[in-house]
UniProtKB/TrEMBL annotation, chains A, B, C:
<feature type="transmembrane region" description="Helical">
    <location>
        <begin position="253"/>
        <end position="273"/>
    </location>
</feature>
<feature type="transmembrane region" description="Helical">
    <location>
        <begin position="152"/>
        <end position="176"/>
    </location>
</feature>
<dbReference type="GO" id="GO:0008519">
    <property type="term" value="F:ammonium channel activity"/>
</dbReference>
<keyword id="KW-0924">Ammonia transport</keyword>
<feature type="transmembrane region" description="Helical">
    <location>
        <begin position="213"/>
        <end position="233"/>
    </location>
</feature>
<feature type="transmembrane region" description="Helical">
    <location>
        <begin position="126"/>
        <end position="145"/>
    </location>
</feature>
<comment type="similarity">
    <text>Belongs to the ammonium transporter (TC 2.A.49) family. Rh subfamily.</text>
</comment>
<comment type="function">
    <text>Functions as an ammonia transporter. May play a role in the elimination of ammonia in the gill.</text>
</comment>
<feature type="transmembrane region" description="Helical">
    <location>
        <begin position="94"/>
        <end position="114"/>
    </location>
</feature>
<keyword id="KW-0325">Glycoprotein</keyword>
<feature type="transmembrane region" description="Helical">
    <location>
        <begin position="67"/>
        <end position="87"/>
    </location>
</feature>
<dbReference type="GO" id="GO:0005886">
    <property type="term" value="C:plasma membrane"/>
</dbReference>
<dbReference type="GO" id="GO:0097272">
    <property type="term" value="P:ammonium homeostasis"/>
</dbReference>
<feature type="transmembrane region" description="Helical">
    <location>
        <begin position="12"/>
        <end position="33"/>
    </location>
</feature>
<feature type="transmembrane region" description="Helical">
    <location>
        <begin position="182"/>
        <end position="201"/>
    </location>
</feature>
<feature type="transmembrane region" description="Helical">
    <location>
        <begin position="394"/>
        <end position="415"/>
    </location>
</feature>
<feature type="transmembrane region" description="Helical">
    <location>
        <begin position="308"/>
        <end position="325"/>
    </location>
</feature>
Length: 461, 461, 461
């Protein structure tokens, strides 16, 4: 391991600054305020009888901020469970999220429809950009500890682009519904990341094995991430659903799904973990699967009852996945999934897609009334039958899996190029390789040793 | 101490899964979307001229999320102050809150009035369920470190039920006002928990004494809980008050009460603590008493001036309680109150009830104008005099104390049965009994010892 | 160092209680609910056709809560980076914020216009009080670790007063715009604090040098502060801007500025830090400079493009400031700036003021349309030209710098009086001087040593 290989003095600044300059130029050329953020245009609407309250800001900004917390605190701290990778977990999460949300604004803007050659931005584009970022952070979880920040930025460039393509196909071309992103965010992010991890397989990773685990306080930091994700998931799933009953119902379905999922997680964890004790890995992750699994159906008339069943199932398969499937993935399929994203986002995402397809296929005018127009506009307009909407949902899952796996494969090979300063097998899961660390020795001594009598005297004086 | 006694492999899964299955069945049978979450019903209201903004979601969802943060982060992290009980504090808080909010939805639904045999759910039921959960978590604070998760679930089943009964009597039968729950939440939860702790008295708890204290970083984690509770208490007290001036005023009164309480807490702490230094226990707890103490009167025309006086008093009695009363409770009354909930929720809750009774008795049409209808509908309608409203408030406090103490007594005896895997006196306040702990030895060494020259070289390379 | 010098038993209670009593008396005499929090007055507005939704609470309360989190969690935890000063960072932050927001309500009330001899309070006064508090906390960052809580309270009394005077001159007399406070909050707080730090210069501070640095977990706690500040800065800058497009646009401009700033920060940090590694100090601080730098122009039609350029510049100068300017400030100018507030708030604040002046000078009716009335009412009304508005902005910067520096100078000398229990040079950056610390020795051993076979057996039993 030589100095130059993982030294980021040139690589990271080049990546950050070049990417940011490109983004700024593209924003300068292509991006405009939308009707609700532009002073002139909004005041035209006011002159035409709108009230300031009609500005979408007031419908969605609280949800946006909750989503924002999930992206930066939730994902960031969830990954701090590693004993020696907290700086990188929070810090790289911060870096790639700040990049991805800008890049996503551009990529989603291209596909969601330009306005006279311009991308319009407002609160909805901000939420969608955060959503796309979430997908990248899921993939980050699969390769956590084994990648350099430059690799992660490159991965983000490609993944955000493919996310926007897939989202366009699923939501616009196929006409599927996926407000909370069981498919477009979770399934996509998980299988993309797993495929990248597969290509980047490190046969000698066991040399860093002793660092690939938690310590007491790192698990507590991770719980900050878990709890924030859990609490704000109702806001995540409802952030871009239609105004009124739709936002309200989506938030509530998610809340019930998560609650039921949590009970299942604790129950199952005690069954499968060593000695009938609880395993923090399950609590930190599987308890969230209920949010993933109602990402598609949450806005539908799933009922609290249906939401709870889905949540219960999601928690169950997630715990079982951590216990039984993850070791198989690693040993047989050579997928080293650091955070177990397959269990938290992969399988529950697929479950969520299936639940969405079934729930859509069962939609009736009797249940939805005029609300059908919000949830399934194509059924309301008579363009499709409910059963066909179900089929569109199912096809969307297949498309998402295909694009994610293929995209992850290609991205993996690009990231395999030995030019990004990736860590060697012996120094994975280790902050010290990319971060100046505080002097631990002296300072730690300070914290733990008995003070000298002299010092003690001063303090007690 | 044998294996079987505290092993949860059968007990916890049985408790979790049976309870969740019961809940799911009851939800399937009894629970429906309300008018604002149901697609068909809400669109009927839209057809009748409502705007999406009239959906209560937009009035209350931001407050709900703040309350949610208080329940899961606030209470959860506040209790991580124990050096070796962080997993259990956050983790059991998470478990029993996820359970209690579901159970509370059912119990409160029964008592708050069924609609054609169905319980209607929406944002207000979600807030109320979180409130009820808060009460259970207060009781949890009294028995923290000395109970198994199975005991806690059983306690939650009973306490939620009695909470709903008491709430029904206080708010519906007696017609008292208690929007922020000085009585129904804080007084109830505290005295219920204290009585449970009394019955579960452990004469040999001093065998675990060395773990019943904090370390440096555990106190910092606890401050996360404190600060979140402090910041969001205005949302808590105003979450279910009437729209408009009521929510606005309640939030502001709480904000001022807490600010004054904080100054009193710091001042008093320096007076009573050792050597004129500040005591973290006071800061973490007593600074919050101002929120508790305006839980009843916060929605009334208490004025900022009145709110500050109440907050100042609450901080004062809370610090003094920690210093002088807690030792007496433990030694004379045999109540081992781990978190000092008597000082944070008990006495300030009673203070809040008294303040509420006095403020209600002083209500005049001159001060409230037409706003009287929101705060005291029975006075507005002429059904009662203000003085009688004050009496109803006072009776409500007595009823709450009675139900809490009696309920806690019975619950304590039920929890005393030796079937729940409670920890022995020697291993209280210890995560290791219920949680798989990360390997500390090797990993900690990793964190603190001087690296080998070889490793150091690699890192610096 | 004798006992009496830093013992707070008398000093802190006297300061806290006297100040709080004064505040309560002044509130009793001078403060009233405004039209939107008073039951009678609001219901008069309702009777006149207003809807509850017109209550400013619903426009601003979510933003207020985000600002509140920035003040108490953001600032509080950002300063926990010191290895041994976490209790004081969070705890003194808590104390002086709780005091300052009350005092600010009074001081700003005097200057923002009394109503019949009374100060009216509501959600907007709460946000403004939190803003003023933010300024005090910035100054706290400059003197962190070297001041007693009594000194900090005295500093707050003076600084809040001068803040209100400066704010009055800048916003009311000069008619400048500064919704996010690049000038009034950041520039003012930074240069005030730097001047105080200059006067309180400690030539022998190197005796505490070994404690003036971070440890691994303290840096992670600090990242909690950083991320919260970063996420909620859009709410900060938009909290008091006009309803509708203004709040919406301000939040979005801030979001883009911060994202670009973050990329610049990571890039520059890797360039200037040791060995091409990232430096936590930069990430924790410089990544936030983008929020500071659009504090004035954020509500203007800066465009996302302009916002990103400003953010990118802010991150760049902030990292360079930490690397090259801070050592000069300390060695040549004798300013010991503990948190580097000059780099995070000082220079980016001045940059923000300049950007604001330029953007204002370029305002045209063509771009703003009728929205001009919200952003630049004096230009809309024809009272001033855009270019003159730019000049007013520039003058405001000069005035702010003048009042901050002069105020800080005087305050520094007042704080130099040897009566406040300030720590000696040898025990700076040390919680133990003002806080009862948990017994670390025994407890830490508990956490790290191999358990005795006996204990281990019990745990594994």
């Amino acid at each position: 391991m030589t100095n130059s290989a993982t030294n980021l003095r040139l690589k990271l600044p080049m990546a950050c600054i070049i990417l940011e300059v490109i983004i700024i130029i593209l924003f300068g050329t292509l991006v405009q305020y939308d009707d609700e953020t532009d002073a002139k245009l909004w005041h035209k609407e006011i002159a035409n009888g709108s009230s300031n309250y009609d500005n979408d800001f007031y419908y969605r900004y609280p949800s946006f901020q909750d989503v924002h917390v999930m992206i930066f605190i939730g994902f960031g701290f969830l990954m701090t469970f590693l004993q020696r990778y907290g700086f990188s977990s929070v810090g790289f999460n911060f870096l790639i999220a700040a990049f991805a949300l800008q890049w996503a604004t551009l990529m989603q803007g291209f596909f969601h429809g330009m306005h006279g050659g311009k991308i319009h931005v407002g609160i909805e584009s901000m939420i969608n950009a955060d959503f796309c970022t979430g997908s990248v952070l899921i993939s980050f979880g699969a390769v956590l500890g084994k990648t350099s920040p430059v690799q992660l930025l490159v991965m983000s460039v490609i993944e955000v682009t493919l996310f926007a393509v897939n989202e366009f196909i699923v939501l616009t071309v196929l006409g599927a519904k996926d407000a909370g992103g069981s498919m477009t965010i979770h399934t996509f992010g998980a299988y993309f990341g797993l495929m990248v991890a597969r290509v980047l397989y490190r046969p000698n990773l066991d040399k860093s094995k002793h660092k690939n685990c938690s310590v007491y306080h790192s698990d507590l930091f991770a719980m900050i991430g878990t709890i924030y994700l859990w609490m704000f998931w109702p806001s995540f799933n409802s952030a871009v659903t239609a105004h009124g009953d739709d936002q309200h119902r989506t938030a509530m379905n998610t809340y019930y799904s998560l609650a039921a999922c949590t009970l299942a997680t604790y129950g199952l964890s005690a069954v499968v973990a060593h000695d009938g004790k609880l395993d923090m890995v399950h609590i930190q992750n599987a308890a969230l699967a209920g949010g993933v699994a109602v990402g598609t159906a949450g806005e539908m008339m799933l009922t609290p009852f249906g939401s709870m069943i889905v949540g219960f199932l999601a928690g169950t398969i997630s715990v079982l996945g951590f216990k039984f499937l993850s070791p198989i993935l690693e040993q047989k399929l050579k997928i080293q999934d650091t955070c177990g994203v397959h269990n938290l986002h992969g399988m529950p995402g697929v479950l969520g897609a299936i639940v969405g397809a079934v729930t859509a296929a069962l939609a009736t005018k009797e249940v939805y009334g005029d609300g059908m127009a919000d949830v399934f506009p194509d059924i309301q307009s008579g363009d499709v039958e409910a059963s066909f909407q179900g089929i569109r949902q199912a096809i969307s899952l297949a498309v998402t899996l295909g694009i994610a796996l293929l995209g992850g494969l290609i991205t993996g090979f690009i990231l395999k190029l030995p030019i990004y300063g990736a860590p060697p097998d012996t120094i994975c899961f280790e902050d010290g390789i990319y971060w100046e660390l505080p002097g631990e020795e002296g300072s730690h001594e300070e914290l733990t040793t008995v003070r000298t009598p002299d010092e003690a005297e001063k303090l007690n004086a």
